[in-house]
Each structure stands twice: as structure tokens, then as C-alpha cells.
Amino acid sequence: MKIGALIPVRLASERMPGKALLPIAGRPAIQHLLDRLFASKFVEPQNVILCTTKDASDDPLSKVAQESGARLFRGNRDNIIDRFYEAVQQFGFDMVIQADGDDPCSDTTYMNLCMERLIANPDLDIVVTEGLPLGLGSKAIRASAIRTVWEHHVTTRNDTGFIYYFTRTGLCTTASIKPTCPEHIHNDARLTLDYPQDLAFFEALFQELYLEKSVFGIDAIVSTLRRRPELIAINAGLDAKYQSRTKQLAHLEYRINNKTFKIKV
Predict the structure, then answer these.
(1) Which of 67, 147, 153, 227 gets the most CB atoms within 10 Å of its CB?
(2) H-run or E-run covering 225
(3) String of b and e for 228-263 (b: at least 16 CB within 10 Å)?
(4) Which residues are within 8 A (CB) of 245 and not within 5 positions of it... i.e. 6 or more apart?
(5) 188: helix, strand or coil
(6) Quick one: pLDDT at residue 246?
(7) Given this model, what pLDDT does residue 237 score?
(8) What single DSSP character describes residue 135?
(9) Integer CA distances (angstroms), 129 to 25, 95, 115, 221, 256, in order
(10) Could you tell me if 93 and 74 are in contact, meaning their C-beta atoms sit under 8 angstroms apart?
């Protein structure tokens, strides 16, 4: 059984072009996510894949992969389902941890919990986190589930909302990992990188917690945000904007038995 990790990432962001390479604590934002995936007990660095596009604008990600020890896969610009399927085929993965390139603090402990659940339950296709602060979660997915979704998806522009193919279509058997303790819950925290305010938030958070190449996790993050609520104010109020954009762009369809269905977002 070969386990890898897939990170969908591209540099031509509409809201913050090149955001994956913007510095947080002196290092590219994407490198902090790679640190956390490298810390997982289930994946080796060479099995962590930056899943990007064939666009020339994404060429700089090759250097990131090479210098970090991760690897690069280049595929369709807008079709993440196609990118995932081709990457899994190329690298021969049976299961993957999936973390979003926008989430530099995605938590390693919960990556491991998701994968443990998936390995222990052969009937499951995907395990997702639920109830964690936005941006700290991840998923564990079987390669067979990626193939199933790839075979049934219709919408080729699915970079927004692609995970709904796995969780809202009935194509996959899904389970969730919820916070393991109350100390991991913070409903007002926003730890995803979409807007300039988010970058300012991460810079302030890392000033509090970061040592050279360190990997701090959910315990340190949530306790710091409770102790320093003014950090929450830096990017407060962006979730409504984020959710509105998702609903506007995520028009996703899939096909079963020659009948086309729309995913409710």
C-alpha cells in the first residue's frame, strides 16, 4: 500500500496572484504546509506532490518542489479532479492525504487521524475533518474514490468546490473526524490564505509561534488565538465573502447512468 499526499496549488490566483510563494516568517507560504505534510507519519517527502498546472506561470513551483524534497505534477489548469486522477496514476498511490495549498497550517495530527480511520475501515472512500478552525483540516482519500469521481464528473472547471464531488454526490462513502477535545474548537478563527488580510494574520501568528522550520499545531494555534483575540480581528469578516464566492463559482455536475445531476452547494 503506497500512501502519498496531494496539494492542489497554482499561482494565477484571482484574489492574490502568487500567494503560495508569498513570504510568511521569511519562507514561502506553501513551504509551511509542506513542513506539516512531511511531519506526517504516513508520507515521505518524495511522495508529497504539488499538484499544479502546465501554465508557465506555475514554473516557479518546480524550484519549491526540488529544494524541499517534494515532487511536482503538472496537469489541467481548472480541472482538479483530472489533475488528482492523473497524479495518482503516475505515482501509483493507493491512498492520499489531501491538503489545500491555501492552508499553510493544516494540522498534521488530524492528517494522521484521517488516514488512520481510512486504513482501518476498508469500506470508506474518504475521511474528512469536521468542526476544526477553518484552514486546519484535511482529508484522506482512496485512489479508487478519485477514479470513481473522475469517471462520473462532468464539470471540467471544478477548482472551486471540487471536494463536493466526494462528499455530496453519494459516489463515495464518507466519514468525518471531529475535534478530539474542546481546546481544538474555535469558531471565529480563519486560517486560510485568500486575501491580504489573511496574509497579515498569518504573519502575526507566526511572529508569536514560529521558530526556524518549526511545525506548531492546533494546540498552540488555538491557545494563542484565545490569549490574543486581537489576532482574530485582522481577518475577521472574510468568511461571508469567501462563502459567497464559492456559491457563485461552484456550479458542479456529475453523471450516473447517462443522467446528469447538479451538486447542491
Answers:
(1) 153
(2) helix 218-227
(3) eeebeebbeebeeeeeeeeeeebebbbeeeeeeeeb
(4) 160
(5) coil
(6) 78
(7) 87
(8) T
(9) 27, 16, 11, 17, 27
(10) no
> What's the rounded Cα separation, in Å, for the pair 97 and 113?
10
CATH number for region 3-262: 3.90.550.10
Residues 6+ apart with CB under 8 A from 17: 11
Domain boundaries, the chain: 3-262
Ranges of H-type helices in 28-107? 29-38, 60-68, 80-91
Q: Please write the tens of the pLDDT for every residue from 178-220.
A: 999 999 999 999 999 999 999 999 999 999 999 988 999 999 9
Residue 144 bridge partners (DSSP): none
User: What are the backbone dihedrals phi and psi of residue 115, each rounded to the nearest 5 degrees, phi first?
Assistant: -70, -40
CA distances from 116 to 41, 87, 127, 140, 248 (A): 10, 22, 9, 9, 35
C-alpha cell at 63: 524550484
Residue numbers in the chain where pLDDT is lower than 50: none
State residue 212's pLDDT score.
85
